[in-house]
Amino acid sequence: MTGNVWSWLNFLTVVVLTALLFLLLVWIFVPLGQIVGRQMNLVPQALTSYSWNLLGSLMGILAFLAVSRLTLPPWIWLGIVLVGFAMLQASVKDRMLLMSLVVPLVLLLHDPSSHDHYTIWTPYQQIEYTRTHAENGDFARGELKVNHTGYQAIVNLSESFLGSSSQAASRGAERESLQHILSVCGHCTKRIDRGLRNRERRGGGFTAQQFFRRRRRD
Q1: For residue 71, what are the contacts with CB-CB under 8 A and spacing of at least 6?
Q2: Which residues pair with 153 in a beta bridge?
Q3: Confidence (pTM)
């Protein structure tokens, strides 16, 4: 199913992927549940073991809340899980083997950040922001992606930026940035037009289409 059109192929694809995901979760959590059950059976008093189980669940929820609140990246999430699996191993050799996997995990998932490019992680989304500058260092454009998909773009339309003669070489990039926005979401045209017409009321304004035509002539 996509949009308003029914498709058996898409429907069956979603069903198969959902079933595979469910089986993967079962494959992961059934052994963990068996380990917890065996450890609880070792405690003489069932109420005490059940109380420790509830305390562990509460601590896990608080840990998840802390990781989410601090927007920690995936290599920290998975690193903690990997260390936890290592502590469950019976032999020292198996523990060291699993802990050694933390190194390639960090190398594969670590994403260095800078002032112009950084990522914020939430429990459900990866929010990535990239800032682009003109040749003279002025802010030209900012692009926001959610889960590697374009979500929003910010373009510098200030009079000081567009009117500067030093920006002549970067006007083509400005036009491409605005055209990218309009291709992503059509209603952005109305928003740009509304903002530029507000200028027109104060004098010297123009529409988005006129803006592109002027850039082509330049």
Answers
A1: 120, 121, 122
A2: 143
A3: 0.55
CB 162 within 8 A of CB 174: yes
Q: Identify which of 129, 117, 124, 189 has the alpha carbon closest to the alpha carbon of residue 153.
A: 129
Alpha carbon distance 211, 216 (integer Å)? 9
Q: Domain boundaries in the chain?
A: 8-109, 117-217
Per-residue tens of pLDDT for the chain, all 218 residues: 445 567 888 889 999 999 999 999 888 888 888 888 888 888 888 888 889 889 989 998 998 899 888 888 888 888 888 888 888 888 888 889 888 888 898 888 888 888 888 898 888 888 999 998 888 888 888 899 998 888 888 888 777 777 664 444 445 555 555 555 555 555 445 555 555 455 445 544 444 455 555 544 55
C-alpha–C-alpha distance, residues 218 and 7, integer Å? 47
The token pair at 208 is 């988005």
Contacts of 128 (CB under 8 A, 6+ apart): 117, 118, 119, 120, 144, 145, 146, 148
